[in-house]
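Hey,
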Amino acid sequence: MPRELRVPIKYAKRHLLCRDTLSPNTRHILMTATPHNGKEEDFQLFLTLLDGDRFG
């Protein structure tokens, strides 16, 4: 789908916090006990925090 036709993504506050905190020049281990909600799109957004080039 062309970018201009995509619906804008509304990021959760925790997603924005992680995105703004993580530096591409450092390493982090992200751990959570919260299960993923089963929505593929949300899961893909979490993966972009780990590697934006691969999953973005």
